[in-house]
């Protein structure tokens, strides 16, 4: 089962600073779709090293969104890619879709 994204970490970081919270959320909402698109571009063009690099970058968004198990899966997937494997790709893609749906609601 995929973790459900949340803003607990963002809220904890921001505390009572509503402006900071809003800026943080805006960054997530703006960066994530671009990074997701970049990921799928690398996958479709079989650019393994670049795919691993964007997975590395995306996994930090998972952490920010409170998705601990997804973060762990991304670590495994990144290593798989560097070994020429793709075992975790479908789960990783599901996580991306879950986050995409979530950020539409925040």
Automatic annotation (TrEMBL):
**One Gene Ontology term from the biological process aspect of the record:** phosphorelay signal transduction system
SUPFAM superfamilies according to UniProt: Histidine-containing phosphotransfer domain, HPT domain
Tell me the domain of life.
Answer: Bacteria
InterPro entries cross-referenced by the UniProt entry: HPT_dom_sf
Would you tell me the protein name for this molecule?
Answer: HPt domain-containing protein
- Per the UniProt record, the source organism is Maribacter stanieri
Please spell out the taxonomic lineage of the organism that makes this protein: Bacteria, Pseudomonadati, Bacteroidota, Flavobacteriia, Flavobacteriales
């Amino acid at each position: 089962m995929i973790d459900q994204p949340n803003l607990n970490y963002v809220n904890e970081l921001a505390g009572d600073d509503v402006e900071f919270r809003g800026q943080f959320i805006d960054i997530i909402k703006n960066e994530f779709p671009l990074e997701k698109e970049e990921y799928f571009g690398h996958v479709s063009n079989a650019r393994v090293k670049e795919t691993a690099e964007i997975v590395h970058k995306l996994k930090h968004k998972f952490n920010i969104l409170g998705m601990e198990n997804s973060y762990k899966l991304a670590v495994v997937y990144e290593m798989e890619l560097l070994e020429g494997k793709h075992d975790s790709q479908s789960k990783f893609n599901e996580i991306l879709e879950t986050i995409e749906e979530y950020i539409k609601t925040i």
